[in-house]
Prior knowledge:
heterotrimer; A: mainly alpha; 7 helices; 59% helix; B: mainly alpha; two-stranded antiparallel sheet; 23 helices; binds calcium ion
Amino acid sequence: MLALVVPATVAGLALGLGLYTFVYAKGASYLTNDPAACANCHVMRDHFSAWIVSSHRSVAACNDCHTPPGLIPKYAVKASNGFWHSFAFTTGRFPDPLRIKESNRRVTEQACRKCHSAITAMIDPVEAHRGAGPLSCIRCHRTVGHVE
Amino acid sequence: TALLVNIFERRQEGRAPFHPVVAIDDETVDPAIWGRNFPIQYDLYRRTVDQVRTRYGGSEALPRVPDHADPRSVVAQSRLDEDSRLRTMWAGYAFAADFREERGHAYMLEDQIFTQRQVVARQPGTCLHCHASVYVAYKRAGEGDLIAGFERINRMPYEEAVKHVQHPVSCIDCHEPESMALRITRPGFLEGIRSVKAAQGIEDYDVNTMASRQEMRSFVCGQCHVEYYFRGAEKRLTYPWARGLRATDMIAYYDTAAADHADWRHELTGAPVLKAQHPEFELWSQGIHARSGVACPDCHMPYVRVGAMKVSDHHVRSPMLNVGNACQTCHHWSEQELMERVHVIQDRTHEMRNAAIDALLALIDDIRKAIERGAPEPVLDAARAYQRRAQFLVDFIEAENSMGFHADQEAARVLLHSIDQSRRGQTALRDGRTAVDPFAPSTGTMGLPPTAEEAQRRAAREGGR
Amino acid sequence: TALLVNIFERRQEGRAPFHPVVAIDDETVDPAIWGRNFPIQYDLYRRTVDQVRTRYGGSEALPRVPDHADPRSVVAQSRLDEDSRLRTMWAGYAFAADFREERGHAYMLEDQIFTQRQVVARQPGTCLHCHASVYVAYKRAGEGDLIAGFERINRMPYEEAVKHVQHPVSCIDCHEPESMALRITRPGFLEGIRSVKAAQGIEDYDVNTMASRQEMRSFVCGQCHVEYYFRGAEKRLTYPWARGLRATDMIAYYDTAAADHADWRHELTGAPVLKAQHPEFELWSQGIHARSGVACPDCHMPYVRVGAMKVSDHHVRSPMLNVGNACQTCHHWSEQELMERVHVIQDRTHEMRNAAIDALLALIDDIRKAIERGAPEPVLDAARAYQRRAQFLVDFIEAENSMGFHADQEAARVLLHSIDQSRRGQTALRDGRTAVDPFAPSTGTMGLPPTAEEAQRRAAREGGR
Ligand SMILES: [Ca+2]
Ligand SMILES: [Ca+2]
């Protein structure tokens, strides 16, 4: 019995807290495309300033690389990131330095293709063969969005 | 090429980046035919005839007067003239007659045919494995069975075997005709990599079905840029990897499994010595780049933009001639700074290599003198055992072609042990000792480093950190 | 422009908003007072009492029963018990009596006062230079003249000199009270760095006015984490850098300029030997991190988020206890992977170090035996000259505290030459040779690497890439 109640309560609390902070901590900025919105959080500022000086500042904003194409998936990712970032931000429970999560790294990898599939058409298809792993753009172009 | 076109079309919403004009199958050896479908790669591939020298690599184009025996009008510089100590190290072996700086892929077949090493010694068909497009030749000689054909051609005298090939390494040796995916066509590597994986506890490893794409990017090069020897009378090409890929693992292998094998008996000392050869793949596997998932083509065939397309630069060459594309995507330092970093690493390796060669030559000279003054055989044999080790270790780094860059600390470790073995040999000889100290240094990773994929998965498990 | 941006951003964070609650001047030694103005840094600073062991670093907290002579209830583990070969290497010197793993800054003064090395030998006041907050003490002893006070305290017996100090290294030793800017307060470094710069052709180098901020970030550590000796009767603290910062440059220095200097005569061989000590600064200067503008605090005092603010982690310690902040800002690998990379480098170095110590001990044993059987002095002296070199080189890496990490290939180069000198000594002895081969390996950079700033300026000139 107790075993059921406790987690439930915790979840409830987390959700409540999450929703609260989502609003309070300007989590709503997730719904815009304005990079400055992301920089609302001081923890995002390093990445903002590193993006400002990157080769992509004038061609791609945060969401171009950190959300998948298509409205539904886009806001799905935003919702989850928005919730977790807000939650993490409020609880202060997050790694320093920040590390992109595997799922978000995949989102970003796909983002490259959104814009560059033409130039990479020749090198990309080879991956389609066998269990051969996909080609990772970030492996070589890690700093396109953020100059270190 | 149907499959390939489909892939391109799916990706390109109909904009295929190339138009297959000819059909290519698993018998198409001539790169010119493949080139009709992939003109960019073919043009780049043909540029491997260029010769430009770097501080320790590239190659110098030396003009020569062609003669009946050797029609080449240009060769690479002689490494023997650059450092005549090599003649002493290899005394009594074909390498003491002719050893040149290696050059581009375009020359691999002619350089093998016309080297003086073919004149001073009779070579087996095995040699072709890495100097020609032998894939189809093997299949034909084996009536469809690659390995059977490989074994048949190994046993032929070189002059006869060479009649079965026409081209240097070609598209078909690295690519599957339908998909252009990378593949391994060389029996030496198929068996070699299986033996390493077995040593790591992975049974029946089949590289062509089990390797990741990123691994394949290095394995295709590892088909040839490796240490090898000809096992037994059937001259079977063998990569001495059963104990691991490190030079010290190979010593362990040559001290036990292949204790009876010697490439030749040293002319001055009578020691049963070994010739180490181009272990780029093995040394790279111990370095920080391999550990970081950086493959040979990342540096030697970096992507290059041609028109609206990015392609792998099939002009395989020294990255020092192409630092911009080869290094700067990952390292944001200036070209000059990156070259200096390579030179610092190479100069240090070169200094250590020289010290190790001097130590070896001192040992060789000591043994020679001991023979003259009639030292007892058991004592001489102990000293010869040390020479065998010391010489293989220093030759491993001398033969490796990056002058230590592929794994700088590991290269130094190998040279340090070479000097230590020379030291033990010199003192054993003077003390008249007949016992040979065991040799089993064991740090580093015996096999290939964790792949980028593995590292990623681990990182993921740790929650993105 | 990777690094500059980092540094720039950090400079911003470095300027933390602070409200001075007490006045601090150039006489304020007590860190607690500075701590009133900078509580965060002070709290972190005090954590250097923590003791945690890593594979090759950190330190182990060994409880002991305090006694009258030594009131410490906890000490670090003994390095002599871990590897008793060190006792033979240092036979006849105080280090053979007591040598422990070093621990946090908080212990520096007590560990120096109570080491057995103080019991078996009389030490000079010079020792304090790196174990206490001596800046104000020097100024007072010199009536305002830092150098004069330094010279006066050097000459005092330790027991007397120690009365002039109260604290381990403190804020005032690294910071200017008004601006909190970094500064050099140690005469040994002021003179040492001037001598290197002079060797590089830069005259009258004044570190406090001419060094860049990024350089200062390493120089403050270089005040103490360096090789040194006491010159002449006045026991003047001297850093042997006049030929360069590499171990091999120091051999050249000790073979010529300081040929008459010996730290002690080896008990078993009578060789005039040298003790190498903690050359972290020198080894780091030869590594890829120094070359990339990465300073000691980047790894040992990385920026840490405290609330909304980032401060330098004044809990100076092993980065292996803090990989996230210390390494992951620059390296996007998992913590586990980064630690494995360090361990691979350290394990290789450890293997080579062991081989070099064995070779040295073999030489020491040979000389001892040669003395017993009454070999002629000139022959013994030649062998002793080789011992002096071989021992300093291996001790250089043994004493350096990163087990090769700070410059892995260079550490291997030093160990390789150590074995080579042992080898030459052993053979010279057996052949009864009296001549000593010259020793002048010369690759690498003699001084400090081009700074990040220089490298970037060069990059900028070449057009940004
Ligand atoms: Ca070459
Ligand atoms: Ca320690």
